[in-house]
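In this notebook, the sequence line spells out the residues, with the fold written below as integer tokens. This is how one looks.
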Amino acid sequence: MRPVLRFLAVLIVTFAVAFPTASFAIVELTTDAVNDFTAGAYGMQSELAQDALLRDGPALQITIPGLRFANPQDIAAEIEKVQSEEGDSKYIVVPYLGEYMISMYRYGIVSIGVIATVMIIISGMQWMIPSGSAGAQAAKERISRAIIGLLLATSSWLILYVINPSLVEFQYLKVLSVVGVSPEDLLITDKPTGEYNSVGGGNPSEFVGKGKFPGTDRPISNTDFDHIFKAFGNCSLKLDYRVLKAIAFSESHLNPTADNWQALNSRDKAKSYKGLFQTKVKTCEGMLKQAKQTQWANMCSDSNIFDPYLNTAVGYLHVKFGMDHLKRLCGSSTAADTQKNDLYKTAAYLFINAGPGHIKVMIKEKYITEQDVCDIDKYKSAFVKWASKAFVPLRVANYAPPGLKKYNYSAQEVKPRMDRLGVQNIFDAGINGNAQCPFDANPDEVVANAALAASNIPKSFTCDNSFAGNVMLAVGDSITANPKSYARQIASNCEGLLKVSVDAQVGDPTGSILRALKSHDLSAEKVNYVAILGGINNITSNPAQIKADLTAMYKQAKDAGAKVIGMTITPAGKYSRYDSGTWQPNIDAINSWIRAKGPDASDGNKTLIDYVIDANALLADRSAPDSLAQQFDSGDGLHPNQTAHTVLAFEIAKTVFGGKEIKP
């Protein structure tokens, strides 16, 4: 038994060297595949997430000579075979484990052969060298055992085959999977209100009218974004807005903050798709530039990409570019053209998922002719063949060629949603009302917080001549004391018209700012306007004291006949000492009070603020509203940089002094 035991020990050691690494890689592969299949409920933009892994196989840290994993075509053939044998049951097919075991078996046999040969040579030399009868006998025994072990290793396949032929076949691993269901089948009814809520999401009615679109799944009946879809539906394509709504629901569940980075299980967030229509920044820039919407394209950024208007603009353009070409080939449609409308509804989503130019490519590569494109059956056949080739390697989570999966999702999931919403002729825009196409306006009139876009930050501006001879005093803390502060930029740009003076000290709380203002005789100095920005340095104290100090400043200015420019406290979420539990509630409370233009009339005072400049909203990061946007951060998370002050300066000049941007 000793030769057998030694053979098994060598085999186990050999397998132990590399098997853990490979097994982890295989587990990671199957886990990613299952996750990616689950993510398909949000649409199929993650279609290619595991392509590289499937193309190259698991990444082994210890390479094995001669190991070659199956190619995508072989996997596809095996999947088709499994599906034909199993009927309606769906399986994830993983070939790599069996291939790995076969390779390790061969590697083990070779290793054992080499070890046995070396032992025979060494023992033979010991046998020939005189060392007494005992040494010669030991050498003979080692040679005998090595030969027996080598024979066992080389005949092991036959031994296993005799025991059970299945032991040497190493078939593909087959894992039964839950059959995919429509996301709408996962909706439950909130019977008391009749409202539909998606599983895991909040009640959309909680967010209506709050001026923002928080991140939560919404039912397809939700109307939060209908006005946006109607506006883009009235652009040049003249599209029933419900087409866009059905696509957006299929992509994101009408969640404007949807980000499938986690679904992709990728380390690179830049590869993920974001927003209502699941797009990327580079795609946003490319599509809008192609549409010659340069101002809109300049707004594409990591923070702006979630904006519902901007994201819908990209989704609309995907449909428009593809549909323009399809309409040229097949013509317009009416509600009576059932087959043509079925084609247009199905293609509309595929322009999003497979690219707006896929029909042109299919024609160019001779998958279909221009005449046959208008036949939905021929279009389907060509698309399945083209996309199955264009989108290989096939993911193990696919149970059909990727082209068929894409087409079926569009025809069996997205198109029926359009039908249920009431879409007949997709080019009937009458239901959209008089909504204005957003491309007919400047993006800063449409997209919230447009100051985040570099193109909307003025290089220079001026003040209206009617304000000549006026005097403005700016008081505050280090933000106002900045050499490039908003006040000093106004002084520079409006030189000769408006005189500006600054009284601000680094670190001053509102009590110190109040004392500084009291040192001025505003009437004698002929101050017409007082700009007041402060509160961040004592934000952790009682907000009531900050309001009292600000109120005293507002009253002093008003009593002197000056107009008050009240500025909200700027974001500080990235500041190292920031405490969200203390700072943010106080910042929000004080800023809400300032936006309401001071104390309520019920306390016997008139409104004390003439102009509210919402510095917080202008400079906040769209994805993290409690923090300065990156382009406005000086580096410490607390102090706005020169670009930020330019935005504030222009806002004051425009709002208070009739300022206008100087066009280059």
In short: The two ends are 92 Å apart (CA to CA). The mean pLDDT is 76. Residues 514 and 619 are 25 Å apart (CA to CA). The chain is about 45% helix and 5% strand.
